[in-house]
Amino acid sequence: MPAVEIKPGVYWIGVNDRTTDLFEGLWPITKEGVSYNSYFVDDEKKVLIDLTKSFKVDEFLNQISQITDIARIDYIVINHMEPDHSGVLSTMRKIAPNVTLVGCKKTKDMLASFLGITENIRVIQDGETLPLGKRELQFFVTPFVHWPETIMTYELSDKILFSCDAFGGYGALRGAIFDDECTDFDFYERESLRYYVNIVAKYSAPVLKATDRLTDVPVDIIAPSHGLIWRKNPQIIVQLYKTWAGYAGGKTEPGVTLVYGSMYGNTEAMMNAVAQGISSVGVPVDIFDAARTHSSYILPSLWTKRGVMIGAPTYETKLFPPVAQILEMAVQKRVLNKKVAVFGSYGWSKGAEKHLEEIIAPLEWEMVDLFQFNGRPTQEDLKKGETFGVNFATLVKTE
């Protein structure tokens, strides 16, 4: 994509990535892609805000060259040191050796440890400003949104917030970079939620602190490091982030995430009966086969829904491993305060329920019901499973 002018003298110069399979080496983006949004402010002092991954260096340099001589850049603002933001920094310093790097104290420390850079660094404090000529930048230190050195940059004249990872999302840009030009808003909202839960959710308290910090800052445009630029109504994404961050405290939606695994179809047969019972109460239910669905796609449902229904057989006296792995990731991401019910088959020995309780102990989930059956479910078992689903959904709905 060519460079896009956001406001006179302010440009998006990002790049799309449709070839990386795993974001952070972990989260699938093969189908969705991702954008690395970088920005250029053209004033008496010329400034880059955020960069891109190293393997996109040629495309990135071409974007900048459409607008200015790279060697004339005065400042590079480093909102975040993660390599999808700073990967081309060493190359940029070779082309513009006199450029000054701008970041907070922790950024300076990371520049030394990550890249061996110790010179031409300007350390900024929270609220500090940087005059560029006609324009002025202001910096807000927002630690753990989502690394400890993260900052946001604010352009005062046009009220543009370059928000780094906050308010961003997965999804390569499909020609349009602005929210009001987007033809598939649901896709970007869904991928913003998945990004939030995968990347940021563990730090929901700092997210709420950062949004509160910015309450009195007039923002007309939010320009994140990934995904759409929000200019028509930036408060949409701010409110979504507040809502998602609020879920960390347990104020979630009256729905059920049903995560199951099945070795030979016995637990799957019961899953269908349980799901029928949940649906009959009118409670939304998301169903995931843990062995065939990456946790990246399950976590958003776990994060937003009040109830968790686990269906898993006992496997060698333990919980079926793919289901256990999903729950372990939920622990990693601190998906707290859920109602949970469990069903599953067993052969010669039980044990899955004990293992599950051990895994979820740090999450303070309330175990409200358990239904196990030996071997293949009978018709009577399936009827019990449907009632099991009805009872759990009723509890979730009325909480």
As for the CATH topology of the largest domain, it is Metallo-beta-lactamase, Chain A
Tell me the CATH architecture of the largest domain. 4-Layer Sandwich
Q: Average the pLDDT over all residues and give the rounded result.
A: 95
The top-level CATH class of the largest domain is: Alpha Beta
Number of domains: 2
* Biggest sheet details: 7 strands, mixed
Structural class by SSE content: alpha/beta
* Terminal Cα span: 49 Å
Count helical runs: 12
| Strand tally | 23
Strand content: 15-25%
CATH homologous superfamily heading of the largest domain:
Ribonuclease Z/Hydroxyacylglutathione hydrolase-like
Contiguous uncertain segments of 5+ residues: none
What best-fitting shape do the alpha-carbon axes yield?
elongated
- CA-based gyration radius: 24 Å
Widest sheet, order of strands: 1-2-7-8-9-10-11
Helix content: 25-40%
Structure description:
The protein has 399 residues and is an alpha/beta fold. It has helices at residues 57-65, 83-86, 89-95, 105-115, 185-200, 204-213, 235-246, 266-280, 295-304, 321-332, 352-360, 379-398, and strands at residues 4-7, 10-12, 15-17, 22-23, 27-28, 34-36, 39-42, 46-49, 75-77, 100-103, 121-123, 129-131, 136-141, 151-155, 160-164, 221-224, 253-260, 285-289, 305-311, 314-315, 318-319, 339-346, 366-374.
